[in-house]
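RESIDUES AND SHAPES:
===
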Amino acid sequence: MDIFNLKFGNQVIKATFNKFAKQADGAVMLECEKTQILITVVASKKKVNNSFFPLTINYEEKLYALGKIPGNYQRREGRPSEEATLAARLIDRPIRPMFPDGYNNEIQIVCTIMSLDHKILPEILSINGSSLALLISENIPFEEAIGAVHIGYIDNEFIINPSLEERKVSQLNLKMSGTSTEINMVEAEANELSEDVIIDALLFGHQEIKKIVKQQQEIVSKLDIKKEVYIKEKNVEFIEYKKFISENYTKNIKNSLMIVDKLDRNIALNDTLEACIEQLTKENLVDEITEINKAYEEVKKEIFRKLIIEEKYRVDGRKIDELRKLTSEVDILKSAHGSAMFTRGQTQVLSVITLGMKSDAQIFDGLEEKTLETFLLHYNFPPYSVGETGRIGAPGRREMGHGHLAHMAIAKVLPSFEEFPYIIKATNDVLESNGSSSQATICATSLALMQAGVPIKKQVAGIAMGLISEGEKYTILTDIQGLEDHLGDMDFKVAGTRDGICTIQMDIKVKGISKEILTESLAAAKIARMQILDNMDKIICKPNIELSKNAPKTTSFKIKENQIKLVIGRGGEMINKIISETNVKIDIEEDGQVFIYSKDQIMINKAKEMILVLTKEFIVGEEYFAKVVRIEKFGCFVNINIYDKEALLHISDLSTERIEKVEDVINLNDCIKVVIKEVDDKNRIKVKLIKE
């Protein structure tokens, strides 16, 4: 067993090696106060013959980490939560680019959260632990350490690893990672911060990353790890195929790449590939179709990148800083509470807003604090959006990730539930896709919210920036489309208002990018964001004053906590009576806050009046007209007409003189005047007769 301590901002991390999971290729237990995470890595011995690096990240949230028993029937740990899926994606993004080109053995990294105290983000620890586990695995070619850090921003000061309380007031929630020289992953939500503040935050965070990387390297040195040297295999067939394709089909591929329409371009590229395979077949030069495909893709990538780097030419003919054609539309669906469609080139997203009552809120109860989410944003990517057939069902990792990114951006401009007492659900369907659908989702949602009459503070727009680099040469692309993302080096998404950035997310395929590229990318993204906002504002620039006629109206008021049961009634009898008579929806909170929803304002008012009647607090001395509804030997019961409230009129309160029976003074159904004599703690009333 080997134990090392790493300084991590104001925290100390204990790293334990050679004790847990010793049959894994690499394993480390990280401990920071009460948080304990086991990170393991295993590589298969066989190489997978495909073009996509087979790396799998599993982020396992164990409920025993917080002393909880799962609530399902089997009481077993269930499928990963959405938060776990997002954490796995966060870990994957900085790890994936760090493997050498050509290495294709399947790798699985498992991060198991075994104990948690919320003082430090477990996903940040998991990135650092994954780097350590890979570094100590002698058979996996992962030789350059990466570090990850969480940065906050409070009172104009940056904070490393902000606490749970600090996170709640921080203007920035930045998760980032990188090597000793460059940054390779960024994800952040911000309160409309400037580009300068974001750059300063990244540089501040990178200084801490350098320290983490240095400590990892020292641990590896002390453990005396003997790494196997990875030598990329020379594939003779691949080399020959690539040479053949370059010599015979470069012009055809280049012409195909320069076709503006995505589908037409794909058809032309496929036709060229088929012609290539047919010629190779005729000349009996075909040994492996898979290798031909790989060689063709490699030649296509080189031609594509050369067009941009050397000729500054993009496949759809745009300038490197030019946006695709923009179209903003609202009020698309006539029965929706709000709807909008945003189109950028061949990417199109329809956003539909639905307003609901508080009971429609989503409850999150996992390893994080139990929360009630009043804003829901769903991102759907059906196969027809890219002209394909496929499965339609539960969202995958990609859909969750894109939806989460859009949710973070929009949430920054939403009113609080107290200001706008509705649950807001934005359903976004990608109708057509050719890159940047997550950022188009942000634009469409912003438009739809304004059209629905949701009082959002400002319009929000998003843009995706790209990068093509060869050595010291590089070109930054504004508004990348699908092919530029697929064959490029960076997907840098930036969303915000006119006043600042709300979210950023950077994914790269190279090992890191410099401060200069980050600065230029953010500056170009700001220009593009303003152009998009100009287009959106021409259609709608502020929220509609009134809600859609399709949306429910609402009112809210408060009753005392001890009055809730009066409104509910025995077995729900009373509240069901109110709902039946008014056809409204009612939510009552534990603190007595009442919310009534309906499309009919008259019925809302009626339901409110019925509840106020039920919860009317009577005061001794108040006078009312009442009807005698029941006579007993000891007195009678009367109904206070305007409040439909029953009260006891004792025989002794019928007269100042002694009487033998109630009927000597009043009779059933008589209308009499009474005064409140007594009110007990259960709101039961005794009255006294007032003689006219």
About this structure: The first strand starts at residue 2 and ends at 8. The CA atoms of residues 27 and 40 lie 4 Å apart. The radius of gyration is 33 Å. The mean pLDDT is 90.
